[in-house]
From TrEMBL:
NCBIfam families attached to this UniProt entry: phd_fam
Region of interest (Disordered), ranges: 1-20
InterPro entries: YefM-like_sf (IPR036165)
Organism: Micromonospora citrea
Designated name of the protein: Prevent-host-death family protein
Length: 89
């Protein structure tokens, strides 16, 4: 894979070296499992990462729409009751 964060391993490696691979996953490493040279799945750690590289954050938001802060605030203000204590229950 082009993504250096994921090491490619074969299905056979996963079967034969599962203990070592699982220890690496616990340490944060990710794997792409292949069968006959074709990627078929990913093995990734479930715990949250505490640090995300800047380039990864920028890539994630690169296709996000531009937010007009004033228009957003106006939309929120128009849809939320301004005095929550004025409502009759």
């Amino acid at each position: 894979m082009a993504d250096h964060a994921h090491r490619e391993i074969t299905q056979r490696e996963l079967r034969n070296e599962s203990g070592a691979i699982m220890r690496n996953v616990e340490r944060g490493e990710s794997f792409v499992i292949t069968r006959n040279g074709t990627p078929i799945g990913k093995l990734i750690p479930l715990r949250r990462r505490t640090f995300v590289p800047r380039a990864e954050v920028l890539a994630a938001f690169a296709t996000a729409p531009v937010l007009d802060a004033e228009a957003f605030r106006a939309d929120i203000d128009s849809s939320v009751e301004q005095d929550p204590f004025s409502r009759e229950w």
